[in-house]
Amino acid sequence: MVPPIPFLPVAGPRGLPFLGNLPAFGKGPLAFLEHLRDDFGDVVTWPLGPARIISLAHPEHIAELLAAHERDYATPDIGWAFGRLVGRSVIRSQGADWRRKRSLVQPAVRPRQVSMYAATMVECAAALADRWQDGTRIDVLREMTLLTQRIVVRTLFGNDIGDQARVLAEAMTVAGREIGAELRGIGLFLPPWVRTPARRRLLEAVAAVDTEMGRLIDARVIDARATRTQDDGREDALSRLLAARDEAGRPPTRTEVRDEAVTLWVGGHETTSTALTWSWYLLSTAPNARTRLAAELERVLAGRLPTIDDYEQLTWTQQIVREALRLYPPGWMIPPRVAQKGAVLAGTPIPAGTMVWCSQWVTHRDPRWFRDPTSFRPERWDADGGEAVPQHAWFPFGGGRRSCLGARFALVETALVLATLAQRFQLDVAEGDITPLAGLQLQPATRLHATVRATSARPGG
């Protein structure tokens, strides 16, 4: 039996009076968290404003934390701004309320539903490929954002919904920007009644989201009443939410449908557009990986568009996605857990009220678990001959009972969209280092421009 990894908390940097390490963390969260791992160790205590933090870096400790029962570790609100956007959705719920909401959301993201969404993913990606032209310059993140917005609109609402999609997308973009800024600054600790300019912008964006979501939900409810059935036969996620029932047979409230629909939008759009952007960037730096991708697409697809049945055969495509999620995980830190009375980790008592953190960025780039950790090497994920990676050394979607419900949706969408576009084009990103910005998602800090290069004709089928 392998002995457990010692749990030996080490005092980290003390920081400034009252602020703790907030200035250093806000300036560069990723570098600061790496500094804790490299200069202090796997278990580091440090102050962030009024909060006392324990940061974990070892996969064994992370696995235990993510598997811990909610009576020992609660999930707190992730900032005032985030709560205004997603409401009391499943990712902010606790206890019986969380279990009820999870049961309501699951039907919308089960593997069968994701398989049905796959055709929409490919259709939208093929339409984008038809608009690209050889030699043109594009903003990669913008192109991937518009594409995944269209996919999430169609899979969530069943159609393109016209101007409502544009209004929703613009409001969500503003909200995401303000949430990211709050997570890195003093706004994380300001009381709810403080109305900074950033918070006023956020409230305006959330009001726009509420208005458009309300119209869409009301229209769908009216349609359901007209057909006099709870399930009108639609297969989009909004219909699945409205038709869902908990264990007691109760339907979700209108507010619950709104909150979960917004959460599905954020998870189904932001995560995938970010993962695709980093995948294109990394492929541009690795000609051999790009050549191997082209060979796999030719072998598996033979000139036709991909389907869900091809997903398991696109192994190299999946390895590219997996490696991109390792190097640039869209969610760069797990929502913190707050120790309750009696909480322990690795047999060590944790003081009640302590916030326990773990970061995908830190553990994904640890040389103990990944050889040459900052290099893009999709072959490390080969089923035969790849690297032996400890459990929870790779956890882009979290883990345990509260792992991301939309993980399969994101993985399938990223792989199928990448395959559809890479059949016809490669993107040559302008040379130079791209710095990631740790906000709500881990996105490039500056615009990522690329030249579109045509590689083949339009696929058939």
Plain-language structure description:
The protein has helices at 22-27, 29-39, 59-67, 80-86, 95-109, 111-131, 140-157, 163-183, 197-227, 237-243, 254-284, 287-301, 315-327, 360-364, 407-422, and strands spanning 10-11, 43-48, 51-56, 73-74, 137-139, 337-339, 344-345, 348-349, 355-358, 425-429, 436-438, 442-444, 449-454. The protein has 461 residues and is of the alpha+beta class. It has a single domain (10-454), classed as Cytochrome p450 (Orthogonal Bundle), CATH 1.10.630.10. The strands form four sheets. The chain has a six-stranded mixed β-sheet. Strands 5-13-10 form a three-stranded antiparallel β-sheet. A two-stranded antiparallel ribbon has the order 7-8. The protein is globular. This is Cytochrome P450. Its cofactor is heme. Belongs to the cytochrome P450 family. Keywords: Heme, Iron, Metal-binding, Monooxygenase, Oxidoreductase.
